Amino acid sequence: MEFRNNDPGAVQYGNFINYYQFNNAQQRLELLPRDVWLRPSSNRAMNESYSVLDVGCNAGNLTQLMYEFLKECLGPNTRIQMLGIDIDEDLIKRAEISNEHCTGVSYVHLNIMNEEAYGELNEYLSKHGRCKFDAIFCLSITMWIHLNHGDDELQTFLQKLSGLAELLVVEPQPWKCYQTAVRRMKKAGEEFPLFKELQWRSSVEDNINKFLEGKMGRKMVYECLPTRWQRRICFFR
Question: Domain ends where: 131, 147, 171?
Fold first, then answer.
């Protein structure tokens, strides 16, 4: 991976090579609830797996911990199938090398903004006898999609994932993170061309929540305390 102006923080898609050195995976995990993963009235078949998608999994550190956490929450007899995807092939290779749960966790190099990606996700679900994921994680990735693809494509992204998820877990970046990302790219001599055209700006987090609840008909069932980066992880069923 090439860093712009030798700044590891100046990346276009949020694919930081050292992400978990400054955003501790365990600290974020400690904020997650233990009782929202299933519907209160859920009657799952004994042999039905619990399917999870982690979008923008980076090197898989948090993906691995979430797998272990869900095992604790859902019980050791629950068969969990977790798929981590990322736009960066090198990060996926690192995730595969460090994978300690090969029977339950897999990784695929996939650009979620390509239409073909959804075909692969549906094939994965079909392979495991499912038509939706029980949970989809979108942790600190909405800003990168927003900066690179604009308002309409961010909404399309949220709409498509809503169609694939029973429970959608979103951790949007606040506007100050956008400003930092733009400043770093500018210092490196590059830019996010769509930045000035964005309509979802200072209230971007509220706009995402309103879109998921108002347009997608979802209900926020839990909101975590802020992370050390002052981001809130929101759960929409």
Answer: 131
